[in-house]
Amino acid sequence: MEQDNIEQYILTHIDEEGELLRNLNRDAHVNLLRPRMISGHLQGRLLKMFCRIVQPKYILEIGTYTAYATLCLAEGAADNAEIHTIEVNDELEDFIMKHLHKSKLKDKIHLHIGDAIQIIPTIDCIFDLVFIDANKRHYCEYYDLIFDKVRSGGLIIADNTLWDGKVLETPHPTDKQTIGIQAFNDMLEKDNRVEKVILPIRDGLTLIWKK
């Protein structure tokens, strides 16, 4: 209960998420199967703040879902920023576009529908910021694909890296998502090309700075 009170205190003392994101959140909870996958108010404000600090010109998001996080990244990025966001589930395209079309930031955002592993090599950009929030089985593959496409001094953010605490457990052999997150965390620990820290926010948020 105390943790819930702390979270509520935080939410009442940070910037509001705004009407568009509130409506998107409500729409997702009514119409989508797994609305808790949305980044949400606190994480959304964090993503905006990271963009304010880093001032990225080119941003890549792997895993659009509802475009909640996408819009938060767009809020914090400069007017001339370019955001490429990839969503594998084509059934979400109508939901995504419905809300993007309502945003004055939509011209910054380029939506790609399809498999990120196939799409990433086709995007001709060196990215300043990458947000990974897609299939946990493939986090290591995403990381390997984007690493050379991130500038030195660029920021990579990976979501769900504590995975409801399952990273502390021995996963069942069929639990490929937990296995994928554990493998990603173990790989990062040994990667001396980067500096990294895990923030225990929501489901775990790892910040990775490329040397």
Automatic annotation (TrEMBL):
Q: Which UniProt keywords apply?
A: Methyltransferase, S-adenosyl-L-methionine, Transferase
- PROSITE patterns in the record: SAM_OMT_I (PS51682)
- GO molecular function terms listed in the Swiss-Prot or TrEMBL record: O-methyltransferase activity; S-adenosylmethionine-dependent methyltransferase activity
Keyword Transferase in record: yes
Would you indicate the residue range of the signal peptide? Answer: none
**What GO terms in the biological process aspect are recorded for it?**
methylation
Q: Does the keyword Phosphoprotein apply?
A: no
Protein's name in the database: Putative O-methyltransferase YrrM
Q: Which organism is it from?
A: Dysgonomonas alginatilytica
